[in-house]
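Weekly sync, protein design subgroup
Attendees: M.S., D.O., the rotation student, P.L. (late)

Item 1: inverse folding check
M.S. brought a backbone from last month's batch and wanted to see whether the design step gives back something sensible before we order anything. D.O. pointed out we never logged the input encoding, so this time it goes straight into the notes. Structure tokens as presented (380 positions):
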């Protein structure tokens, strides 16, 4: 073989190798963490299904990243809503070399986990975390899909005084990062609006008996009882309020504001008694896309959307969009694209500020009538 033909043969072999490499699927691992066990498990599974739906659609679409066909894999972990289990789950995903993480469900697990992802340089998009501290730790890897507690608790505090005309209020929280955070912001806003906080009590996120707390609150005759925590505790609390003859309005944040609440309260809540807010919501122009997502979700999983599966769905899609723009699934390369992205999701246009917070985040106010959640309106 001549030198020229040898050289041409080598070039052909190199081209073939490059072509074969380009044809090889790029495996992209998307981590998801939520409480898949414990009292918030129904919310955790809802969140996970949103990610699962997005990944299946992306695989069916045949997304390419940097000229290579991408195959997306879901690595799901259960943190049970426990901070220690949350950091263990985060470390496990880091060790498995995930390309990005959607999660966690709770503020109490997402905040300590954020440092682990930041140290590894892995992007974390939280779909339902509302404690302001989450994006105030100085990490360039943390992003939030919804408005925070300062907005949510503040809006509910003003609503309780200005619309519900509450003069005397009792506040209870479950001592989690989420529960304490939203309760404190509510209390601050309600005081500023002119209400008196007659009682500030606390319980735990696993309690089932609130007789002692509620008996003390009953004596204060509040117009409104605010609870910072999740629906698994709020339901039994509402039931015991009814048993004790407490007729106060019951106000809560997004953890309370689920379709499961009437069932968890065993039907022991009167129409209009509960007012709650969800960090998120869509305007009229976005409603058709949002409603289509809900219909597709129900068809696929045989269940209604709880709260945040549309946000985990959008979080997954926006993360992948950043990878496509960067032509790489390496977080170091796609993070700059994520920081400046503007993406039309089913929940609205997704763009982040310099801290990683969602820009112009919406809040949706709800009540319950006939055992069904009913929207009151959207505020920003």
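Designed sequence read out in the meeting:
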């Amino acid at each position: 073989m001549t030198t020229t033909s040898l050289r041409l043969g080598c070039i052909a072999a190199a081209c073939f190798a490059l072509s074969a490499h380009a044809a090889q699927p790029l495996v992209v691992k998307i981590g998801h963490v939520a409480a898949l066990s414990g009292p918030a498990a129904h919310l955790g599974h809802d969140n996970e299904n949103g990610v699962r739906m997005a990944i299946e659609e992306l695989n069916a679409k045949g997304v390419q990243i940097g000229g290579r066909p991408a195959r997306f894999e879901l690595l799901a972990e259960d943190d049970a809503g426990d901070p220690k289990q949350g950091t263990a789950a985060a470390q496990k995903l880091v060790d498995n070399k995930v390309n990005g993480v959607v999660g966690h469900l709770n503020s109490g697990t997402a905040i300590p986990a954020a440092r682990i992802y930041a140290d590894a340089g892995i992007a974390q998009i939280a779909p339902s975390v509302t404690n302001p501290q989450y994006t105030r730790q100085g990490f360039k890897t943390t992003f939030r899909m919804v408005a925070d507690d300062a907005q949510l608790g503040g809006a509910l505090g003003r609503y309780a005084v200005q619309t519900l005309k509450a003069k005397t209020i009792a506040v209870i929280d479950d001592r989690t990062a989420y529960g304490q955070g939203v309760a404190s912001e509510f209390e601050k806003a309600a005081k500023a609006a002119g209400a008196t906080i007659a009682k500030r009590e606390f319980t735990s996120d696993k309690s089932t008996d609130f007789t002692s707390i509620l008996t003390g609150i009953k004596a204060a005759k509040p117009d409104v009882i605010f609870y910072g925590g999740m629906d698994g505790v709020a339901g039994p609390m509402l039931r015991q309020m009814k048993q004790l003859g407490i007729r106060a309005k019951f106000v809560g944040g997004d953890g309370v504001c689920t379709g499961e609440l009437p069932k968890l309260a065993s039907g022991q809540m009167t129409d209009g008694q509960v007012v709650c807010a969800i960090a998120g919501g869509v305007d009229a122009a976005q409603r058709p896309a949002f409603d289509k997502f809900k219909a597709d979700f129900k068809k696929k999983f045989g269940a209604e959307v709880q709260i945040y599966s549309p946000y985990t769905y959008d979080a997954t899609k926006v993360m992948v969009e950043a990878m496509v723009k960067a032509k790489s699934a390496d977080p170091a390369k796609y993070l700059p694209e994520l920081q400046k992205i503007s993406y039309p999701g089913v929940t609205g246009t997704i763009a982040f500020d310099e801290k990683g917070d969602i820009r112009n985040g919406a809040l949706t106010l709800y009540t319950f009538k006939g055992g069904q959640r009913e929207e009151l309106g959207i505020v920003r």
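Discussion: Residues 297 and 305 are 7 Å apart (CA to CA). DSSP finds twelve helices and 15 strands in the chain.
Action: P.L. to compare against the previous round before Friday.
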